[in-house]
Amino acid sequence: MSDERTLQVEIVTPDGQVYAGEVAMVVLPGVDGELGVLPRHQPLVTLLAIGETRVRTVTDDWDYIATGIGYAQVLFDKVLVVVDHGELAGAIDVARAEEAERRARERTQERGGDLGAQADVDYFRAEQALKRAENRLNVARRTH
Amino acid sequence: MASLRDIRRRIASVQNTRKITKAMEMVAAAKLRRNQARIESLRPYAGDMIEMMVDLATYSEDARQYALLQEREVRTVAVVAMTGDRGLAGAFNANVVRKAMAIERELSDQGVETRVLAVGRKGIGTLKFRGCRLEKSWQGLSDRPQYTDAKAIAGELIEMYLSEQVDRVRLVYNHFTSPIEQTLMDDVILPVPKEAVTDGSEDRPPVSYIYEPDPEDILEGLLPKYVEIAVYQALLESSASEQGARMSAMRNASDSAEEMIDGLTLALNRARQAAITQEILEVVAGAEALG
C-alpha cells in the first residue's frame, strides 16, 4: 500500500485556491468531454468547459467542485486546474443558486424570442449565466 | 473679539468633525487591508494563466492570426476611466477624469475618434457634467469588486473590439503603489499586447504535452481571460488605491482639525484670561473709588 501513487491536485481561481490535496483520481470537464486523470498520466494540457470537477480522495470518497472556464495542466503527478470560478459542493448555497438559475432562465427566454437581432450577445451571455447556475445546482445536489 | 461661548461652540464643532474624519480613516484602513489581501489571492491565478498562454504561444506550430492579438489601424479608441463610487478621497477621482479628458483631447487632435466608458459613480457624474457622452458605464462595484464584474466589463470591451466599433481599448486607473501613493496608469488592454503573451519562455524546459484540443485552440480559448484578468486587476488596484487615498485625505483632515482645536483653545484661554483681568481691574477700581 505504501508505494501506491497519488496525485497532487490544486484548483486556483481569481479569489484564491479553492481546493488542494493528495488524491487518487481527478475527473475534469474538458471541452470535448470528461477526462479522467490517474497517477502516472502523461503530461497534458486541456481547455475546460463549465462543469463538474470530481476528485476521488485517498480514502475513496468523492469531492465535487463546480468549476468555470479555464485550463488544466497535468505534469509529474501534479494536476493544476486554473479556472475563473470554483465552488466546493458543500459550500454552495442552494437557495441562492436556485434563485440565480430562475433569473437566468427568465432572461434567456426573454431574449430567445427574437433571435434575428444580430447573433444576440445578450442572449449568449444570459445563456452562459444559465449554464453556470445550472452547473452550480447540479454539483450542489450531488451531496444531498 | 469672539465671545467665550462662540469659541467653545466652534471647538465642539471641530471636535465632532475630527471624530468623523478619524472614523473614516480607520474604516478606510480596514478596507485597504481587505483589498490588499484580494490582490494577493489573484496573483497565483493570473500568474499561472499568463504563463500557460506564453507556453502555448511558444509551442503552437501554425502562426494563426488570433482575433484578440490583431493590431489594426487605429481609427477609434475606447477610453475606460476607472474611478470610485465615493468621494472624500483627495484627488483620487479627479486625477482619473482629468487624464481621461486629456487623452480624449490629444486623440481628437490627431483625428482619432474616441468612445468614453466609465466605471465608478464619481467618474460617471463628473464626465457627464463636463458634457462627455458615455458609451457605457458601470457603478456600485468599487467597494468590493467581484470577478464576475470584471468578466462583464471585459465581455463588453471584447465585443466592441471584435465588432470593430473600436480598434484599441485603453484603461485609465490608479495603480496601488503603497497605502499613501497611487500611480495613475494608462494601459492598452486590447488588442492584447503581444509581448505579454509571448515573452520570457525561452528558459523554460520544453515538455511534450498532449494538447486537447490543439495548442492554438486552447490559446484562443484562454485569450479573453487575459482581458478579464487585466480588468479585474485594475478594479482591485483602483479599489485599494481609493481606500489608501481616502485614508491619507482623512488623516490630513484630522491633523488640520487638531491644529484648529489647538489654535482655538489658545484663543479661548486668552479671552478667558482677559475677562478675568478685566473683572479684577473693575473690582480694584471700584474699591479705590469707594476708599
Tally of strands of chain A:
9
End-to-end separation of chain B in angstroms reads 33 Å
Strand order of the largest sheet of chain B: 3-2-1-4-5
The major beta sheet of chain B can be summarized as: 5 strands, mixed
Classified by CATH, the class of the largest domain in chain A is Mainly Beta
Count of domain modules of chain B: 2
Write down the overall mean pLDDT of chain B. Answer: 87
Oligomer: heterodimer
Strand content of chain A: 35-45%
Low-confidence stretches of chain B: none
Distance N terminus to C terminus of chain A?
32 Å
The percentage helix of chain A is: 25-40%
Low-confidence stretches of chain A: 115-119
Radius of gyration of chain B: 29 Å
Summed up, the helix count of chain A is 2
Shape of chain A: elongated
Which CATH architecture of the largest domain in chain B would you pick?
A: 3-Layer(aba) Sandwich
Query: Can you tell me the CATH superfamily of the largest domain in chain B?
Result: ATP synthase, F1 complex, gamma subunit
Give, in order, the helices and strands of chain B. HEHEHEHEEHEH
- Class from helix and strand fractions of chain B: alpha/beta
